[in-house]
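Researcher: Please predict.
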Amino acid sequence: MFYDRKDLASGMTEVRDGIMGVMLGLRSLNKPVIAAVNGWCLGGGVDVLMSRDPAISSEKAVFGLPEVDWG
């Protein structure tokens, strides 16, 4: 496992706030930001992709939200 479940709850607020800060920062730019995927796009990568203006993916792109299996 790549994370420690015992400390998961204590750091989730900071992680959530950090991710939201990135998303809102990208959203507030005055120029379009293009997202491109050519391979795996998982978890937070999918969140960033969904917050972009145009998003482009190749036929090789694979999308997933593995965190739904953690709960």
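Model: Strands lie at 35-37, 40-42, 55-57, 62-64.
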